[in-house]
Amino acid sequence: MAETVTPSGTTGPGSLLTSLGPLLREWLPRQRWFAGKGRPVAGFSPVAVTELLPSDGRLGLLHLLVRVHQPAVPGAPPHPGDCYQLLIGVREALPPRLAPALIGHVQEGPLAGRTVYDALYDPRPAEVLLEALRSQARIGGLRFERDPGSEIRGGLIPRLMTAEQSNSSVVYGDTYVLKLLRRVVPGTNPDLELPLALARAGCARVPAPTAWLRAEAAAGESYVLAVLQPFLRGATDGWELALRELAKGEEYENFGAEARALGRATAEVHTALARALPTVTLGHGPLRQLVDGMTERLAATAQAVPALRPYEPGLRSAYAALADLAAEGRTWTAQRVHGDLHLGQCLRSTGGTSHALSGGGGHWSLIDFEGEPARPLAERRMPQPPVRDIAGMLRSFDYAAHSATPPVPGWAAVCRAAYCSGYAEVAGVDPRSDPVLLRACETDKAVYEVAYEARHRPDWLPVPLSAVRRLATSELT
What we know:
Elements lengths: L12 H15 L15 E11 L6 E10 L12 E10 L10 E4 L9 E4 L4 H13 L2 E2 L2 E5 L11 E3 L7 E5 L3 E5 L2 E2 L5 H11 L10 E6 L5 E9 L5 E2 H11 L4 H24 L3 E3 L1 H21 L7 H16 L4 E3 L11 E10 L5 E6 L10 H4 L6 H17 L5 H19 L7 H22 L5 H10 L6
Antiparallel strand pairs: 1-2, 2-3, 3-5, 3-11, 4-5, 6-7, 7-12, 8-9, 9-10, 10-13, 12-13, 14-17, 15-16, 17-18
Helix pairs in contact: 3-5, 4-9, 5-10, 6-7, 6-11, 7-11, 9-10, 9-11, 11-12
């Protein structure tokens, strides 16, 4: 267990979780960022409990790292349970403005009679976090750290971003955005590691971290819990921008120009990552491991999602074709990549030199380097062929096109081609020149999407299944 600061008036973290347990069992599975949906919560164990504001005062604030125990997934190896970061506010009663944040009313234990809620909805607790980062505070096992060359302004008004996301973000006065990771694992998190490396490399496509929060745990383990970065005021994410254009029903070429600029931005980030961090050569052995991982994910997903099973043989052929090239002696360069690139991870702000839909200039930035949260941290930090990121973006164009009513597959085709052309302008290599690798990576991404949608958003399942049908029967061109 990490060093723990025992909350005022409590008898320890175990007693606190016993008190909160019935409420968290109901509240956690409803959160967008909870990964264990569909399985009951059997119990909790504390990793660390730290008091940031006294819980017996008018307003209390508790920082919890909690391991959630659930029944094992059939066929999966034993798992100790996911660890989640919770910021729990404590009040006598909630004002109406905080009603959406309610977790519940504690009936027994050290917080009996108090109301607990998600503290990120409340400006005062959010201010406490920014002040701790500004002053580089150390509270229990929590380490609030910042870039030595950065100063953090105080007195900024916080607001919680309510857009659907797999973590939580608080914006401070349109100056900073604090991303709090919800499901955390010990180790070096790429969401801090890669932006720091890109800042050192002088890459302007990624906002440089201003400050961050870590927790020191037992046996030398360290958790990255949050990252503070400049807020890109007036920026629009690529997903929103794409849907806005699709709703207009105009010619495809408008967003095609944006897709081309986004391809150039992606190549700039890849080029900077290759300069800043080591690259490796993938030969037959490493490629075989990569293909085996893809094949295992396909088999597990087909077992869980019956709708995928008719396409499984065709999808396996995409992986087999890649393995055959490796067996013939083909090699690929692998490097650190974004890991979960899609339109929602890209922001276009005004200014810069790229074409913009409104007729002015625009600048694309890439954010959220955490990678696919469902994958193990060690896998997310492994060098990968850059095409894995490109495949994710190609899938995102397809998602946007199928979100229109009716779907507009021609729009996706234009954007995919423009994006690859823009990438080639900077990287010097067109991703389409390696169709076997591109098809395998896009297939792996589509299989991941099938598993995700089946578990979290069944109504969206037809979108990746439409790609699965194409990928199972033909190569990308």
